[in-house]
């Protein structure tokens, strides 16, 4: 059994419990590991789904559950074989902490599709047994292959959400060729959507935001949108028919997908990154005419996540965050359910260090 130490963390003990201060075991760094003191951790909607066991049919939660996969921290210790990091370096960890490294996906540098990947939390832990624990914690130990470098000038609280919200929107835009001169739609201006707007703008695209809330218009323009369409106004929607190269749909509530597919030009693609609970109804003709595609995309690979962070470093892109102490995490979850945040919560983990563990 690997040697362990106890990390002060915020964990849920059951689907109905609040997150509370809890000690959880972490492994001592092995030769390829990096020990990171967590400085900031973003709150992703997946954290809430997992804590409340809302994905139990596909991905049952093991308790205690320490969520968090938008992690920024500082390296404090490294194993003897580590070459990429030294103590004092900034470091980041996203949704993956390991994969089998031997399957064809891993061989192609696409570990986000590895059938044996290890997610940052609630995934079988190869070292300690049980499941992995995420970033709502004072520290985390991760193999250097899955640790990212952080561009030095970025605001660290705002950089944390890049590790999930950032890469989830950057990866599909890169895959479907969003570059200067392309017209890109972003549906839904939440945690993912606001990152998509910033990234698409920096990639040089003409960006159109679709929202149901007219009061988000000014924000969308400030974030980098060239146009804002209120999706309830059918005349505004009609004007956009057949004009988009790419649309990123970040809405996880029920909505009419055909209205957006019809806005694609020939060979355009609509990619889902939000996951509505109920199956979406798709009219075949909306795809057939125009040879359009409907697609989906998960996070991104480790190499692509590094590329995204470096891109954000060059363009000074971070998420718009509300920084909270970890003691407010339960309240933040309630507000997240009401979309009452602009646009991501980022937990300042110094608040955990100053707390005595229960
Ligand atoms: Zn996430
Ligand atoms: Zn693999």
Structure description:
The protein has 358 residues and is an alpha/beta fold. 24% of the residues lie in helices and 27% in strands. The chain has twelve helices and 16 strands. Strands 3, 4, 5, 8, 15 and 16 form a six-stranded mixed sheet that branches. The site of one zinc ion has 8 residues, from α2.
Brief characterization of the structure:
With 358 residues, the chain is of the alpha/beta class. Helix content is 24%, strand content 27%.
Write a concise keyword list for the protein shown above.
six-stranded parallel sheet, alpha/beta, single chain, binds zinc ion
Distance between the termini: 26 Å
Report the portion of residues in β strands. 25-35%
Indicate the radius of gyration in whole angstroms: 20 Å
Largest sheet: 6 strands, mixed
Task: List low-pLDDT spans.
Answer: none
- Let me know the number of strands: 16
Q: What number is the mean pLDDT? A: 96
Bound molecules: zinc ion
Shape: globular
Estimated structural class: alpha/beta
How do the helices and strands follow one another from N- to C-terminus? EEEHEEEHEEHHEHEHEHEHEHEHEHEH
Contiguous helical run count: 12
Fraction in helix: 10-25%
């Amino acid at each position: 059994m690997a040697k362990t130490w106890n990390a002060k963390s915020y964990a849920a003990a059951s689907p109905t419990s609040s997150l509370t201060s809890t000690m959880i075991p972490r492994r001592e760094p092995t030769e390829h590991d990096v020990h990171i003191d967590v400085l900031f951790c973003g709150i992703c909607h997946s954290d809430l789904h997992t804590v409340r066991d809302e994905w139990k049919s596909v991905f049952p939660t093991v308790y205690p559950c320490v969520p968090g996969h938008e992690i920024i921290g500082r390296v404090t210790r490294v194993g003897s074989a580590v070459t990429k990091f030294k103590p004092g370096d900034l470091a980041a960890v996203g949704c993956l902490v390991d994969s089998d490294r031997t399957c064809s996906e891993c061989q192609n540098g696409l570990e986000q599709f590895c059938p044996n990947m290890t997610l940052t939390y609630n995934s079988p832990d190869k070292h300690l047994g049980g499941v992995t624990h995420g970033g709502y914690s004072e520290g985390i130990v991760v193999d250097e292959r899955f640790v990212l470098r952080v561009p030095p000038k970025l605001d660290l609280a705002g950089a944390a959400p890049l590790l999930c919200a950032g890469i989830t929107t950057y990866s599909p835009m890169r895959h479907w060729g969003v570059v200067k001169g392309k017209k890109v739609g972003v549906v839904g201006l939440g945690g993912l959507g606001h990152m998509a707007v910033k990234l698409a703008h920096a990639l040089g695209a003409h960006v159109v935001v679709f929202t149901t809330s007219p009061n988000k218009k000014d924000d969308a323009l400030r974030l980098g949108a060239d146009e804002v369409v209120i999706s309830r106004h059918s005349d505004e929607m009609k004007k956009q028919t057949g004009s988009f190269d790419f649309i990123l749909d970040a809405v996880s509530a029920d909505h009419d997908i055909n209205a957006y597919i019809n806005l694609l030009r020939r060979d355009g693609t609509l990619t889902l990154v939000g996951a509505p609970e109920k199956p979406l109804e798709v009219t075949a003709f909306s795809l057939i005419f125009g040879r359009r595609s409907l697609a989906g995309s998960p996070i991104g690979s480790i190499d692509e996540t590094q590329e995204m962070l470096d891109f954000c470093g060059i363009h000074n892109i971070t998420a718009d965050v509300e920084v909270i102490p970890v003691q407010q995490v339960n309240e933040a979850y309630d507000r997240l359910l009401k979309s009452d945040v602009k646009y991501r919560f980022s937990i300042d983990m110094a608040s955990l260090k100053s707390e005595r563990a229960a």
